[in-house]
Design brief:
The chain is α/β, with parallel strands linked by helices and 217 residues long. The protein contains 7 helices and 7 strands, in the order H-H-E-H-E-H-E-E-H-E-H-H-E-E. The protein is globular, with a radius of gyration of 16 Å.
Length: 217
């Protein structure tokens, strides 16, 4: 009997993270860290598909209460070691976006950083859940590759429908207060991942009475 799609994906990412070294390094993503003024000590944050933990550990070092999950057990083991090495506590778990226990109005912030494995149908559900799990006034951080990344070939998915556009992110953030939405090129240096990259980022705040995608509760 063959592997289920989820099992196959977990096996793939376990292979990606099998090296003893941290594939994407241990420093936080530059764009995400550049928004540290929006994140405060004591806030509760959810890190979606956080891999080896570089971003969640950075948040914990800031004094935030951090939940983080990833489909790869190998990545989570490395993330736990990184947290231990930095003397911080992070609530790590091995989960996919489809089996994480999404709770309504639970977090001050949700971060989806370079998480582009999802099909369009999965992505719709993912972002709806990300918005729903935010408290009123909570912040959604999204960073990913734009379609121009296919020209550079320096990482990311090879399927165009897994890439982000500003129009797509604006649609997902419908009803939210968009604080930032932009596309740009950057030289990315994160562990073994290096090279010119086409990026798109969103920061949006959940408005009072909003459920998801502009829907009132």
């Amino acid at each position: 009997m063959g592997l289920t799609p989820k099992e196959a994906a977990a096996k793939f990412w376990d292979g990606v993270y099998s090296d003893n070294a941290y594939v994407f390094g241990t420093a936080p993503n530059d764009w995400f860290a550049g928004h540290d003024h929006l994140l405060e000590k004591g806030q509760r944050i959810l890190m979606v598909a956080d891999g080896e933990g570089r971003n969640s550990v950075w948040c914990a070092r800031k004094g935030m209460a951090v939940d983080a999950f990833d489909l790869s057990g190998t990545a989570i083991r490395k993330a736990r070691k990184l947290a231990q090495d930095n003397s911080v506590a992070v609530n790590f778990s091995v989960n996919g976006v489809d089996d994480w226990s999404w709770q309504a109005d639970a977090y001050d912030a949700v971060a989806v950083i370079m998480c582009q494995f999802a099909t369009p149908a999965m992505r719709d559900v993912l972002f709806r859940n990300c918005i729903r799990t935010l408290k009123e006034g909570g912040l959604l951080f999204v960073l990913g590759y734009s379609p121009k990344q296919l020209e550079y070939g320096t990482g990311g998915p090879s399927k165009g429908d897994q890439l982000y556009t500003e129009a797509m992110l604006r649609q997902y953030a419908e009803g939210m207060e968009i604080l930032e939405l932009a596309s740009w090129d950057a030289e990315v240096k994160a562990g073994r991942h290096r090279g010119k990259s086409a990026l798109v980022g969103l920061v949006a705040r959940k408005k009072p009475g909003q459920d998801a995608y502009g829907t009132d509760v």
